[in-house]
Design brief:
Layout (H helix, E strand, L loop, with lengths): L19 H13 L3 E2 L12 H4 L4 E5 L2 E5 L3 E2 L4 E10 L5 E10 L5 E3 L3 E3 L4 E3 L4 E6 L2 E6 L11 H7 L7 E2 L3 H5 L12 H12 L12 E3 L8 E3 L13 E7 L4 E9 L5 E7 L4 E8 L25 E7 L6 E4 L16 E3 L1 H4 L3 H11 L8 E5 L1
Parallel strand pairs: 1-6, 4-12, 15-22
Antiparallel strand pairs: 2-3, 3-5, 4-5, 5-6, 6-7, 8-9, 10-11, 13-14, 15-16, 16-17, 17-18, 19-20, 19-21
Length: 378
């Protein structure tokens, strides 16, 4: 275990073939041998008491980090695991960090950085922040991609959602595990941001020197997408992995394709549904992970490259006067989803992206996946 610097192409992690009892014994042995349990939330006062309610049942290994996971649970807002991230430092000392791994509306599994709960807010922290220009105003917003769990871990989490026919409701785990943010705090705390900041300062494995690998030459013009040479998806090579899931929102089966960049420094996740194709995440291939289970470095791109098949676009009646809320580039919003009227079809934007057109032609039209892993329904 540990968060040592690694740079290698890895297959997706698989769930250990241990029984829940064997996983529990392995976990207890770590504690008995001196591993420190380090919750960030209310359980910090009595760390071992957390285990009475949230005993791990599954284990997954990725990049020298050991993940112990409970059964999947559900509250009013998110579907999640209580995850224990076990890492060993350079002195051989093991620390175990309880975290919340949740499934976002993007259909990606993410690691929550903190939470905000008050009479007016109930919000899961989404990592680091960035400044954007919106309607002529500079705004500080969450950089949600910084909480994306490794693409190599996503299939295992999807598979584990099939373990239970009935998912247990749980409203207590989040405050026990996560640190509470007060007021309207959106920025993560130092235990989340610190390892990533140090990696940038020390320039450890930065992708394209920390600069964007894809950008739009012209605002609101999907055809103007440009990649830094070498960082384009390698459609001529083998598709690294294909997995499948189903989604009610997207009307059936979703295929998930993991594809490397030509220079092997980045990797792309393409999702293909019955109608839409989109890229929900682009990540480095370097394997150094923080105690939140996320990578220390990013593969940066313009946000409009990562628009999902259905994205938020609705009139917010709670504002005075009512105001449009949209995360689809102006003029490209299609029909609203029949399941969620706040989200509209983004195909008009996506299908004009050259990279999506190339993917449809080079991958979807040219091959039928030979090996597809069946994963969870959402």
């Amino acid at each position: 275990m540990g968060a040592r610097e690694q740079a290698r192409i890895a297959a997706s992690a698989e769930v250990d073939r241990q029984t829940p009892a064997q996983v529990a014994r392995e976990f207890q042995a770590l504690l008995d041998n001196g591993a420190a349990l380090r919750p960030a939330g209310a359980a910090k006062r009595k760390p071992r008491a957390l285990l009475a309610q949230y005993r791990p049942r599954y284990a997954v290994e990725l990049f020298d980090t050991r993940f112990f996971l409970t059964d999947v649970r559900q509250n009013d807002d998110i579907r999640f695991f209580v995850a224990y991230v076990a890492q060993r430092d350079s002195r051989g000392r093991t620390s175990i960090y309880p975290r919340i791994f949740y499934k976002d509306v993007s259909l990606l599994w993410r690691s929550a950085s903190h939470y905000v709960r008050s009479e007016t807010d109930n919000w899961i922290g989404k990592g680091e922040t960035k400044t954007i220009l919106q309607d002529g105003v500079l705004m500080l917003v969450s950089d949600e991609a910084t909480t994306d769990l490794p693409l190599e871990l996503q299939p295992a989490l999807e598979l584990l959602t099939r373990k239970l026919r009935r998912i247990r409701r749980d409203e207590t785990a989040v405050p026990l595990v996560l640190r509470k943010g007060y007021g309207d705090r959106i920025e993560a705390y130092g235990d989340f941001t610190g390892p990533r900041r140090r990696a940038r300062e020390q320039r450890r494995g930065l992708v394209n020197g920390g600069r964007r690998i894809a950008r739009f030459a012209r605002c609101n013009d999907p055809a103007s997408l440009r990649f830094v040479p070498g960082f384009e998806p390698d459609f001529r090579g083998d598709v690294l992995e294909v997995h499948a899931s189903t989604s009610k929102l997207y009307g059936g089966e979703l295929q998930r394709f993991r594809i490397l960049s030509r220079n092997r420094q980045a990797q792309y996740l393409f999702m293909a549904g019955p109608q839409q194709v989109w890229i929900p995440s682009i990540q480095a291939t370097r394997g150094e992970l923080t105690s939140y289970g996320v990578r220390t470095v990013d593969a940066k791109v313009d946000d409009d490259l990562l628009v999902p098949g259905y994205e938020y676009h609705f009139l917010d009646e709670s504002e005075d006067p009512p105001a449009w809320v949209s995360q689809i580039p102006p003029g490209f919003a299609g029909e609203p989803s029949s399941l969620d009227a706040t989200r509209c079809d983004a195909s008009a934007w996506l299908d004009q992206l050259p990279v999506i057109r190339d993917f449809r032609r080079a991958v979807l039209a040219a091959r039928r996946p030979a090996a597809v892993s069946r994963v969870a329904r959402r």
